[in-house]
Amino acid sequence: GAARTVPLAYFLMLAAAVLVAVANSYGAYLAGFAAMGFLLLGGQNCLNGVIPNFYPAEARSLSVGAAVGTGRIGSVVGPLYAGFVLAGSYGARAVLLSIVALVAIAAVLVLFLLLGGRRFR
User: The pTM is what?
Assistant: First the structure.
């Protein structure tokens, strides 16, 4: 079920992010970014289908809308952050390590949500 599948997708995405952060070859970057893209799209779409179960019927569409809106904000803030890190001469490795940290936080939060969250029917 989703309680196992979605956290698994996020933890596999964490492994792919670590691979990208420590990669020293084009092939490793390619494999890591391909895995991250696949798992991000699949994991996020699955999460969008699971989120409504944690809210009463009156708030379900609002909950998915808020989650999607938060993701859109991240789509704006993420590249800005990467630009600031690169402009600060920290390099691409610092950006990639930041991705690892953010994916780790997301994976743990998704795990706690799906294993311990109160569901409405």
Answer: 0.85
